[in-house]
Each structure stands twice: as C-alpha cells, then as structure tokens.
Amino acid sequence: MRRVEHVMGFPVSLRIDDEGEVRDEGAEGDGGGFRAAADAVFAWLHEADARFSPFLPQSEVSRYGRGEVAYGALSADLAEVLGLCEEYRAATGGAFDVRLPGREFDPCAVVKGWSVQRAAGLLAAAGARRFCLNAGGDVVAAGGPWRVGIRHPERADQVCAVLTVTDAAVATSGRYERGDHILDGRTGRPVTGLLSLTVLAPTLTEADATATAAFALGAEGPAWAAARPGCEVFAVDAGRSVIRTPGLPLA
Amino acid sequence: MKRAVPVLLLTVAGLVPVWRYQPSAGTADAARPASTPSAVPSSPSSASSPSSLRVVPGTAVDTVKGVFQVEVTFRGDRIAAVRMLQAPHHPQTRWAVPELVTETLKAQSAHIDSVSGATITSQGYKESLQAAIDAKAS
C-alpha cells in the first residue's frame, strides 16, 4: 500500500508492505488493510501542523512565541518538543537555537522529526511491521532491509550514497532545497561549511535534530554528530569531500 | 567520567607539541573500543601540509575512575579525530568518537526504495527523485 499527501508544506510518502496481516478487507493488495492506520498517520501530521506551526497565528507555538501561553500551561507535547530543543541547543554550544534575535520562535527543526517519528509509532501500534515513511526527505524505515538513497547535493536526480536501513531513521540537512535557512545561533549567520549532512539514528526525532544541529555547527558538525550515541553520519563539505563514520551501513 | 573529560582534553591539547617535536609516532594497541563523547577541538593551523594524517597515542592518565588513554589523529595541524584507547567500562563511556572516513563525492543512479535529502517543498516534489519512486510504484 502506498499513499502520498502534502502536510506541513512538504510531501509525505507512505509505503506499507506487510503481508498476511490484513486487518480489514483491503483492495489494494499487500498492506491494504492498514488504510485506517495510514489515515491516522496523516490525521496526526495535520494535527501536529495545526498545533506546532509557527506560520499559523493561532497555533500553540505561535501563541507561546508571543508570550500568550505560560511555560507551565503548555501541552505535554510542546513541553517535550521544547525539552528537545534545549537539549540540542546546549549540546551544540548554542549553534542550534530555536530562538534567534529578530526572528520568530521556530521549533520546526525538532517538530518535524518528532511528529513523523510519532506517526511511525502509530503504524507500529496498528501492527504494521514493514513500512517506509518519507516526510519531505526524512525517512523512518521499519522491517527492512530498505535501500535509502542520500540525495546528491548538486544533482537532484542522483544519489551520492545508498544505505541499507532495517529499523532506523535517516534525516538530511542541506542548503540545496531551501537556501541558507539554517543559521549558526552563535553568529546569527547562515551556515556555509557544509553542502549537506545526513544522520542515521534509531529514531527520526534523534536523526532530524542531530542533522540540523550538526549542520548549524558547520565544519565541526560531522565529528560532533558522530560522537552522539547511536548516530552514523554522512556529510558533504563545501569542498565536495565526503566525511562519514566508518559504521555507516552503505549498501 | 564527567570529571575525566577535561583531563582528557588537556591530554589531547598536550599532544600537539608532542607531535610537532616528535614526528615519529609510535603505535598503540587498541585496548577497548569503549569511549566518551568528547569534543574534537581544533588547534590553530600552521604552514604544514593540510592533508597528511598522523596518528598519535596519548599517555595513559590514571584517574579515580580508572585509566584513560586517547589516540589523536591530526590532519596537518588540526585534530581530525579522537579515539579512546583505554577507558573503564562504564555505561556512559560505551560509545566511541569514531575516526571519520574521507572520500570523494560520487553520483550514482541506483535502485532505491526512498530518498533522504534536505526538506523539499510540495512545489518541488513533482521534480524530485522521491516523486519518481512513488510514481513508478503506483
């Protein structure tokens, strides 16, 4: 079963390959019985967008950013997201920061990985064992092996590496899709030391936050991410050299 | 362990002159892969060749938590990687700062199930590799 929908401004591609675990009469073949679980995935992602988007004035994130919600009155979910933001800010010495002077409070970098990981949890809870969820370039894979390509930073139609992923997540940060949108919180300036940085981690929450935070660190990012527990790293620097961890599961 | 980290970083810093004045680095047995997530500081660059890699084992440091010994890989004057040669077995020290591999960037068109890349926009999706994968399968 496959489905593509657009949520939070990016495409979300879901593929479920389970066989013989059909919960209801699915007409689409393998995995067709997980239609309700797929519905729940997209419903949750739409809910996460409505609650945590900094672009929607009435979202909890926007109201918190304007000081209209006290920290103690936050939902447990947003408190968890803020805890993650603070963890990565501290771990990068301030290079990764969701509060920059002159900018809106923007926890998108953490919300994305965290919410998509929770969506994957909904699939697992519904009994899906072999699935691949790709949210705008961030991937949660279960029941692999899955072949996950890393997009070439300069050639949109090619990959620069292929990873074999069984039960893990892969996230990439780069400048080639949205330009210089990641700032080094220590200087307030766009990061330019790397073309892209990919992290493989047990969860997308870790992979996405680690990739974004490492990208913000620039040239120090690959070594920093490599030292994070459970993380494998593939980075392309501004000189077009690949820097990676020896344990990366290259196909 | 937390207290041992500054000691280790001092050890690392101390290796810079060691390497400069004793360029014939010895070899060391990798005792245990257990390690700590220590930062990889960089030293000021100098005129030496930026691409040559040199591996220097540090001296073993006896601490209240046990014996620690690091190995530092220099690229030119900069520290490229730090590896723990000896560390007491401890839950906080079980991950390593791996020595990073440097390779040439390659482009390939291989069969893949999914693509990881910088966040694409919904507008950009139509042209993307992931869209091609999704279209091919449906």
From TrEMBL, chain A:
The keyword 4Fe-4S does not apply. It is an enzyme of class 2 (transferase). It catalyses: L-threonyl-[protein] + FAD = FMN-L-threonyl-[protein] + AMP + H(+). GO terms for molecular function: metal ion binding; transferase activity. The keyword Repeat does not apply. Its EC number is 2.7.1.180. Transmembrane segments: none annotated. Its cofactor is Mg(2+). Keywords: FAD, Flavoprotein, Magnesium, Metal-binding, Transferase. This is FAD:protein FMN transferase.
From TrEMBL, chain B:
It comes from Streptomyces monashensis. Residues 63-136 form the FMN-binding domain. Transmembrane segments: none annotated. GO terms for cellular component: membrane. Coiled coil: none annotated. It comes from the Bacteria. Residues 30-52 have a biased composition (Low complexity). It holds the Pfam family FMN_bind. SMART domains: FMN_bind. GO terms for molecular function: FMN binding. Residues 27-55 are annotated as: Disordered. This is FMN-binding domain-containing protein. InterPro entries: FMN-bd.
